[in-house]
Amino acid sequence: MYGGGYIFEEPNRVQQREEQLHDDPEKLAAFEMRIAKGEKIEPGDWMPAEYRRQLIRLIEQHAHSEIIGALPEGTWITRAPGFKRKLALIAKVQDEIGHGQLLYNAAETLGKSREAMINDLLSGKSKYSNVFNYPAETWADVTVIGFLIDAAAIVNQVANAKGSYGPYCRALDRICYEESFHLKQGHDAFIELATGTPGQKAMLQDALNRWWQPIMHFFGPPDKVSGHSEKLMQWKVKMASNDDMRNQFLEAYVPKIRELGLTLPDPLLNKNEETGRWEYSDPDWDLFFEVIKGNGPCNKERLDVRKWAEEHGRWIRKALMKEEAFGKKAMPVA
Ligand code: FAQ
């Protein structure tokens, strides 16, 4: 087990048991009515056990993605070209870690302890975003992450910030402010390489070719395969389907990429002007499921770094968690 040194209150445990006992149709109908009226559900409110379970799964996966997502870019802080790019990258990586903290806090309001979430990440039980299991080989990879993965994350998060669970929505609002800045710095770096020397442009094109499929995977499997979407959309946890989010992303960003003279590695990628939808080759979904199962190019490396950090940080967590250091209400430290 990893961690060792956290002290968590789990205020919702009793309530969770109650829900399992009393997940009755009347309560469910009243709950669904509140959601239909656009009310926010707050931690102390009654909720179906499945709503709680799904939210924990989704928010926890999101939190892990922010923490693991800092790693590919983090390794480039010392190598970013020039002082200003270094400063911006340091700030961005710090922000991503902060997003992880906000999201772990939001997930904790549902009754799962931070320690349990970290354990599930490190044991491989919990998932995190597919995109962070690929290597950042060159500065252009960092640029593609900063522009297009942040853009993809914003499409998802701006939509879901209008969802039904108060703590998650409030965390997403704050995250979106910061992600918008990340997107600007990513776009600026992207334009610089695209309009730079032929070597810079070729490096960017190569990175784009390698990242395109993982970015298409980012929004999740097609709607006909996505197992969770229907219920989560009914409960306004997800505010659009995976395919709709993917389409929104293509609509906003493919033109921005093409206007810089870059190409995308999909001969079928094209907007159907009649339907208004983008058409594309089906990305390799078998590969996607392998990557999220733990068999991507960098899964082991990413988790090894987190395990190292967890083990080497244990002594300081223990010191900080001593009751006498903070009084009775010791705070969890990541
Ligand atoms: N990666 O039924 P669905 C960021 C799994 S934050 C891994 O469609 P769902 C910031 C899914 O868990 C990035 N697994 O699933 C940043 C499920 O497996 P399960 C993260 C994925 O949950 C930028 C199975 O496939 N954002 O990037 C993925 O309804 C730059 C079936 O799929 C969020 O987490 C995937 N891409 O919809 C940081 C946002 N897609 O659990 C640093 C919140 C699907 O049944 C640098 N999450 N799976 O075993 C969501 O909105 C949803 O979870 C979706 C997937 C839309 C990602």
Short structural summary:
By secondary structure, the protein is mainly α. The protein has helices at 13-21, 25-36, 49-74, 83-108, 114-122, 139-160, 166-194, 198-218, 229-234, 242-258, 285-295, 299-312, 314-321, 323-326, and strands at residues 270-272, 277-279.
* Backbone shape: globular
CATH superfamily: Ferritin, core subunit, four-helix bundle
- Which fold does the CATH topology refer to? Ferritin
CATH architecture, by name, is: Up-down Bundle
Amino-to-carboxy terminus distance? 15 Å
Number of helices: 14
Mean pLDDT: 92
Helix-strand topology string: HHHHHHHHHHEEHHHH
Find the structural class using helix and strand composition.
Answer: mainly alpha
List the helices and strands and how they pair.
Elements: H1 13-21, H2 25-36, H3 49-74, H4 83-108, H5 114-122, H6 139-160, H7 166-194, H8 198-218, H9 229-234, H10 242-258, E1 270-272, E2 277-279, H11 285-295, H12 299-312, H13 314-321, H14 323-326
Antiparallel strand pairs: 1-2
Helix pairs in contact: 3-4, 4-7, 6-7, 6-8, 6-10
Phenylacetyl coenzyme A binds at residues 57-58, 61-62, 65-66, 69-70, 96, 127, 129-130, 145, 149-150, 153, 156, 160, 217-221, 226-229, 232, 238, 242, 292.
